Amino acid sequence: MTTGQDLELVSLTKRYGEALAVNRIDHHFRAGSYACLLGPSGCGKSTTLRMIAGHEAPTDGSIVLGGSDVSWMPPARRGTAMMFQNYALFPHLTVIDNVAFSLKMKGVEATVRRKKASAMLDLVDMVRYADRRPDQLSGGQQQRVALARALITNPQVLLLDEPLSALDPFLRIRMRAELKRLQRELGITFIHVTHSQDEALALSDEIVVMNNAVIEQAGPARNVFNRPRTEFVARFMGGHNVIALPQGHFAIRSDRVSLTAATQGRLDGQVTGVEYQGGHVLLTVRAAGDQEIAAIVPEDAYFDKPMQQGADVGLSWDDSALHPVAV
Ligand SMILES: Nc1ncnc2c1ncn2[C@@H]1O[C@H](COP(=O)(O)OP(=O)(O)OP(=O)(O)O)[C@@H](O)[C@H]1O
């Protein structure tokens, strides 16, 4: 079920004095989709999110939600809600009062807001903790409360700024599955800021990769991963080499590069690193032109014919695995 509305960023720009944090970005977020804004530190993703939320005014450009320009509307009237990295729960209020807080501000009557808050806690499986205070909850539980508190306003778009970064790795994987479930169930648009490629790949209908205040590439997760358009995207998404060949620069997945006997491949080189990674072995080869190329070899294949650091090898691939990239 899709109940959200399309969100459009039109030439959206933010300057802080001389510094350009977001530089004329255009993007259309489809209603009811899960989008991740992904990029290295300082690329402008949080600033973009804060402008969508209304916590930061654009220097130029506009934000259009469901056909209406909301660029200058106060946050509470936009149809968006934000979940912050540190959850920003009120320490002195119980869980249920935290969730009901925004309804109280709107003057909603006590029994009605408790009923609605209770329904939200049910959605995130936290009803039994309704009377605890935030400091009596684990990080994962606090996160669920923060989600319920954001969702009680019935937003069209939920904005999440690094929502999983405070959790330990095990809980992070569990909570990301919960986020995805919730988004599917509610049918609203989620825009999630992260600098984790794994998180973006696991969650996104669409990944929007930012770098240096602009969008480098956007598209379905598999497209962005398998068809990086620039060297930056190929390297940032990981799992790829960027190889300079006489015909130009090409991205190739490390698991599409195979090793042959020396002089039998496309390029010759020397093994400079061997790393056992569980199901596979990561070999690093220094090839002609001082290029470091990574090859992922399945565990069994590697241990049938193990290689030492310094060994001369050839590198081979299928041409269909090469994708031209801009550098
Ligand atoms: N309030 C501010 N005043 C001045 N400069 C700012 C302000 N907020 C952000 N910036 C600058 O704008 C740029 C983009 O910052 P932003 O927080 O959007 O990046 P980010 O991609 O979210 O990074 P991170 O992953 O580290 O949070 C950075 O260079 C940052 O220093």
From TrEMBL:
InterPro entries recorded: AAA+_ATPase (IPR003593), ABC_SmlMolc_Importer (IPR050093), ABC_transporter-like_ATP-bd (IPR003439), ABC_transporter-like_CS (IPR017871), Mo/tungstate-bd_C_term_dom (IPR008995), P-loop_NTPase (IPR027417), Transp-assoc_OB_typ2 (IPR013611)
PROSITE patterns referenced in this protein's UniProt entry, alphabetically: ABC_TRANSPORTER_1, ABC_TRANSPORTER_2
Any one cellular component term from GO for this entry?
Answer: ATP-binding cassette (ABC) transporter complex
Record keywords: ATP-binding, Nucleotide-binding, Transport
Example GO molecular function term? Answer: ATP binding
Q: Which SUPFAM superfamilies match?
A: MOP-like (SSF50331), P-loop containing nucleoside triphosphate hydrolases (SSF52540)
Report the record's Gene Ontology biological process terms. Answer: quaternary ammonium group transport
Where the record annotates domain ABC transporter, the positions are: 7-237
Q: Name one Pfam family in it.
A: TOBE_2
Q: What is this protein called?
A: Putative spermidine/putrescine transport system ATP-binding protein
- Species this chain originates from: Aliiruegeria haliotis
